[in-house]
Specification:
two-stranded antiparallel sheet; mainly alpha; Four Helix Bundle (Hemerythrin (Met), subunit A); single chain; flat; 179 residues
């Protein structure tokens, strides 16, 4: 496998992991939690999803041929919560990721060295992918943090639960020994 093919495969794998963290958070929280703000200056989960949706559609629509900051995007509006429902927010979440995955899965290894533009900045395709691989996990981390904050003791860990690191490491070592 070439480095370029591996980069695309691994990037998609990493994006899927972060989407899954968000999906698992949504499965644990109530509808009201989507619209809850811990403070007046913080964003709700719904607002974070609206922003990610707008960013994903703007960045990944006609990715190789148009500036990633589309004229039709209303970025400032993404940070205001309107009347919405859980289903609407989850639909935005899915639509954004679908747009991104459809684009990434159709890129060819040779595309990685092409130039694209985001907000008038020229980037290689691989750098544009890395840029989003930093941006989306940042927001997914916010979503997970808020979900955990709202669920408190009812939260089911998305990774190794507190206090289970040694037991988890031992399980991994035992599995490796059996191979």
């Amino acid at each position: 496998m070439s480095f370029q093919t591996g980069f695309l495969t691994d990037s998609i794998k990493r994006f899927r992991y972060y989407k899954e963290l968000g999906d698992k958070t949504f499965a644990q929280i109530e509808e009201a939690d989507l619209f809850r703000q811990p403070s007046t200056e913080s964003n709700s989960i719904a607002v974070i999803v609206q922003h990610m949706h707008g960013n994903m559609l703007s960045r990944w629509t006609n990715f190789l041929t148009e500036d990633g900051e589309k004229e039709w995007r209303q970025r400032d509006a993404e940070f205001y919560e309107g009347k919405s429902t859980r289903q609407h927010i989850l639909d935005l979440w899915e639509a954004g990721w679908t747009c991104m995955f459809d684009t990434l899965e159709n890129l060819k290894p040779d595309d990685l060295e092409k130039k694209v533009t985001i907000r008038t900045e020229s980037l290689t395709v691989y750098d544009a992918i890395l840029r989003q691989l930093a941006h989306y996990p940042y927001h997914v981390g916010q979503i997970v943090y808020l979900g955990r904050l709202f669920k408190n003791e009812g939260w089911t860990s998305l990774s190794i639960p507190k206090g289970d690191s040694s037991a988890n490491l031992e399980t991994v070592k035992n599995a490796q020994r059996k191979q």
